[in-house]
């Protein structure tokens, strides 16, 4: 079994610690510091959050997406064919993102996240995975002013993200993870994702993960299991349907189980984690099981995020120790 995180991590520390990144962004916007100085602060905070994950006991970490404004903007700005519009709510959360607008053919032109990944690898004693918003979700959260149908946009996004994923693999990513929360909100269109999945995964040689969250995969689980990924991430905190699906279905690939609630400050105990882990082990062998929060942790205060990761890792260790 492995413990990991979904992607983002709180950028702002709890008081009285100073919010260095927020202050630096404000100073940059006012012209008081340079872009290079802002990047240095982002690097420092990235090292800090990587170390917090490691200290908690996480086996596979991320860079915390410290430099990301949201899950869409970095990718849209890095690809040909997009402009960026105003703020809009991100699903049913209390966070917002700048909505991408498709103005022309979507194409990959150069690495977008490779520098950030290499920096994280250099500053981590644990494997680092790369995380990308998937083509279906990126399309659904964008305004399309160019393509005549959504399938064409999703396929072109799959081609572009495949190029980025290949570059990330070459740079040393322990795993490439594609986040597709929109799939659980638009289940009738899962066939569009299924058509794009072979394009997205073409030529990738390492571990490939598909993560869903903010809901269940009732009705679409067979399609996702057959889409070519090595690991499927499911949210076990929003409702109980994914639990029922796991207990009724064969699960032939790796499972990344979101058993710690990434949107609730209520702290799970290590015993809670151990109980759920044992339940999952009845259906999925340990060598194919990943345990993580249900979503990215940026929805939580920094201290709660750190404590939840610690409880997650302690609970998994309890199960491992009892199995020996």
Description:
- This protein is an alpha/beta fold.
- It contains 11 helices and 10 strands.
- The chain has a 7-stranded parallel β-sheet.
- β6 (176-179), α7 and β7 form a beta-alpha-beta unit.
- α2 (35-56) packs parallel to α11 (302-323), α6 packs parallel to α7 and α10 crosses α11.
- The protein is globular and about 55 Å long.
- It starts with a strand and ends with a helix.
List keywords for this structure.
about 325 residues, alpha/beta, TIM Barrel, 7-stranded parallel β-sheet, 10 strands, about 40% helix, globular
Name of the CATH class: Alpha Beta
CATH architecture: Alpha-Beta Barrel
Give unreliable regions as ranges: none
Output the CATH topology: TIM Barrel
The count of strands amounts to 10
Q: How many independent structural domains?
A: 1
Strand content: 15-25%
What's the helix and strand layout?
Layout: E1 2-3, H1 20-29, H2 35-56, H3 73-78, E2 79-89, E3 96-108, H4 114-122, E4 130-133, H5 135-140, E5 143-144, H6 150-170, E6 176-179, H7 190-201, E7 208-211, H8 221-225, E8 231-235, H9 241-248, E9 254-260, H10 270-281, E10 289-293, H11 302-323
Parallel strand pairs: 1-10, 3-5, 4-6, 6-7, 7-8, 8-9, 9-10
Antiparallel strand pairs: 2-3
């Amino acid at each position: 079994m492995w413990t990991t995180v979904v992607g983002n991590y709180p950028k702002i520390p709890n008081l009285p610690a100073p919010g260095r990144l927020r202050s630096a962004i404000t100073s940059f916007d006012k012209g008081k510091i340079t872009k290079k100085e802002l990047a240095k602060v982002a690097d420092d905070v990235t090292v800090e959050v990587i170390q917090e994950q490691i200290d908690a006991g996480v086996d596979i970490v991320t860079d915390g997406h410290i430099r990301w404004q949201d899950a869409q903007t970095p990718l849209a700005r890095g690809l040909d064919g997009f402009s960026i519009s105003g703020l809009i709510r991100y699903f049913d959360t209390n966070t917002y993102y700048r909505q991408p607008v498709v103005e022309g053919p979507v194409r990959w032109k150069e690495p977008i996240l490779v520098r950030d990944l290499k920096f994280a690898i250099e500053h981590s004693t644990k494997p680092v995975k790369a995380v990308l918003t998937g083509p279906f979700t990126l399309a659904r959260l964008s305004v399309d002013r160019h393509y005549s149908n959504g399938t064409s946009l999703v396929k072109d996004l799959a081609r572009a993200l495949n190029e980025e994923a290949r570059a990330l693999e070459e740079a040393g990513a322990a795993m490439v993870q594609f986040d597709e929360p929109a799939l659980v909100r638009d289940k009738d269109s899962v066939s569009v994702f299924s058509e794009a999945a072979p394009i997205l995964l073409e030529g990738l040689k390492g571990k490939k993960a598909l993560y869903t969250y903010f809901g269940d995969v009732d009705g679409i689980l067979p399609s996702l299991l057959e889409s070519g990924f090595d690991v499927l991430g499911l949210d076990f905190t929003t409702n109980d349907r994914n639990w029922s699906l796991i207990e009724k279905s064969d699960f032939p690939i790796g499972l990344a189980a979101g058993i710690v609630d990434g949107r609730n400050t209520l702290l799970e105990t290590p015993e809670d984690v151990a109980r759920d882990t044992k339940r999952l082990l009845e259906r999925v062998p340990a060598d194919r099981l990943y345990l993580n929060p249900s979503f990215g942790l940026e929805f939580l205060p920094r201290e709660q995020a750190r404590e939840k990761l610690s409880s997650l890792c302690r609970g998994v260790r309890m199960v491992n120790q009892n199995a020996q």
